[in-house]
């Protein structure tokens, strides 16, 4: 599942994020991980679809993401669903916290990847879409596809 780009190796992508949320702003944050978590990510194992970003105190945390135990790990293996600290600048944390206090905004993880050897999380601030918004977006998408195929 690892897609290669310019020094970027994507480990996990949340495909439902743009379908379920109207993403207003995106951020890139470093992940504070243990050694076995990094090894598990390098094998391409992670699920972020159920995760979300939360501000606790003056720190940002990734909650609910699943990074399975490293298969060759020992007794010191990590718990798969632990909260992981995000590494952001103070002004970014303040901006995200301000948006999350507004009605309807949530921080949704969109991708975990390695950039120049460091684990990164891309997350977006978005508002949840209503069912009719999703249908409208799907209709527009199919219309664009039909016009593209007509040529």
Overview of the structural elements:
With 151 residues, this protein is of the alpha+beta class. It has a single domain (3-150), classed as Small Protein B, Chain: A (Beta Barrel). The chain contains four helices and eight strands, in the order E-E-H-E-H-E-E-E-H-E-E-H. The chain has an eight-stranded antiparallel beta sheet. A hairpin with a 2-residue loop joins strand 4 and strand 5 (59-63).
Task: Set down the secondary structure blueprint.
Elements: E1 3-4, E2 8-13, H1 17-20, E3 21-31, H2 35-42, E4 52-56, E5 59-63, E6 84-87, H3 90-101, E7 105-115, E8 118-128, H4 131-150
Antiparallel strand pairs: 1-2, 2-7, 3-6, 3-8, 4-5, 5-6, 7-8
Keywords, please?
globular, 151 residues, Small Protein B, Chain: A, alpha+beta
Average pLDDT, all residues = 89
* Record field, number of beta strands: 8
Approximate strand percentage? 35-45%
Q: Please give the oligomerization state of what you see.
A: single chain
What is this entry, summarized?
With 151 residues, the protein is α+β, with helices and mostly antiparallel strands.
